[in-house]
Amino acid sequence: LFTFFTCLHSVKPNEPQILYQNVQLPDRKLIISQPDPILRISLVCSAVGGRPAPNFKWLLNRHEIPNLEVKTKTPMSPNDVAKMNNLLKIWGKLHPIINNKENDEQSSLSILKAGLEDGDEIVCSVSNAATQINHDPMKRNLSITITVEVHKDLGEGTIVDGLERRTPCQDSKERRSEQM
Question: Where would one find coiled-coil regions in this protein (predicted)?
């Protein structure tokens, strides 16, 4: 008579990294130009070495980003349509598309650049069975934060030495907090 045991061993993934165009962001800053003919940007969050593969979550200014790309083979219920319409009201400026493949060590986030504002913080948070056993709830998720820096075209015109040019400034952080 033989008895077989299966031993499941969980391994915490490495600290996550956010890549833009397959490169780590210097100083964890995402610098974008507005206006720009490139409408969307794609970020990749990678957390390798975990077993089981980690679960990924994206956040913008501490709010979880929903995936607005819906692929269903069956019609959506009226309740699901109402939920999606509500999400579009809040997140429509970014129209986020998240691609999480099961048992993968990375997740991608595609968002509209025009919806981002100077000072926005994008977070990739990962967890798996190994991170969840930590006694400190603050350490059950591994995360990385990047800050958005928007460079805006100040418009037409020539700057002449000795003359003054005034450009109105607006605090984007205050506007963002009022919207959410």
Answer: none
* Tokens encoding 179: 């919207």
3-state SS class at 112: strand
Global confidence as pTM: 0.74
Domain 17-151 sits in CATH 2.60.40.10? yes
E-only strand ranges, the chain: 17-20, 23-24, 29-34, 40-46, 55-60, 63-64, 97-100, 106-112, 121-127, 142-152
Tens digit of each residue's pLDDT (9 = 90 or more) over 28-87:
999 998 777 778 999 999 999 888 889 999 999 999 998 877 666 678 788 888 888 888
Kindly give, in sequence order, each residue whose CB lies less than 8 Å from that of residue 153, ignoring residues fewer than 6 positions away.
Answer: 33, 34, 35
| 137 φ/ψ sector (left φ>0, alpha ψ -120 to 50, else beta) | alpha
**CA 125, 111, 20, 179 torsion: positive or negative?**
negative
Residue 68 in contact with residue 95, Cβ under 8 Å? yes
- Tally the C-alpha atoms within 13 A of residue 9's C-alpha that lie toward its C-beta: 4
β-strand partners of 11 = 51
Instruction: Show the DSSP H helices in the chain as ranges.
Output: 78-91, 129-132, 172-179
